[in-house]
Amino acid sequence: FFALSRPAIKGLKSKNHSKTAMAIIIDNSYSMDYFSNGTIDLEKAKLAACKLNSYVKKNDLVAIYTRSQKWNDFNSIMYPGKFPDKILESIRIIPETVSLDSLFTKVDYELRNTGYSNRKIFYITDQQKEKIKFSKFKINVIGIYNPSEKSNLSCENAKYEIIWENNSLNQIIGFKIKNYSLSKKSDIVCKLILDGNKIAQKVVSLESK
Known about the structure:
There is one protein chain. By secondary structure, the protein is α/β, with parallel strands linked by helices. Helices cover 19% and strands 36% of the residues. A hairpin with a 2-residue loop joins strand 8 (153-165) and strand 9. The radius of gyration is 21 Å and the shape is elongated.
């Protein structure tokens, strides 16, 4: 499901590695809800984080971060030695994520504040198309991969609104459909079901993300 063979990780595996301050960032955006091989990508990412944790020594510092600002505010602290595995249980898929640039900036700042000269950032993700500024931050990306092309869709940001239109108040439910595959998807049927009854239906086509 994932590969832990990058040079930075090999350095951690050494029994005598220099004391290190590290941040492990787990991508918990919608695309990580993709199901394959009996589990979703988010759970695979948690397994990868646990594997990294197994290389942490007692003189190291480690913190877990996610794409959720609220989760980070309550849970992202530097642990001396290994982080408690139970902390991963509260990580869930979220609809709205913080930008990678702002997240990397915060994580880099926190690592520098430890005073450790050896600092590492690991980002565990499904590698969906998103800009990562490698020139600004040294990020070790651990890719969650699947044996075949992803073809999942997501329904995001659904919300109820009342609008004034044609001299009357109208009630609408709006939402976004995203295509996470690498190819265009045609003839997607979107249905609005209320109390078991179909209220509305529309056929759409979506370009790849």
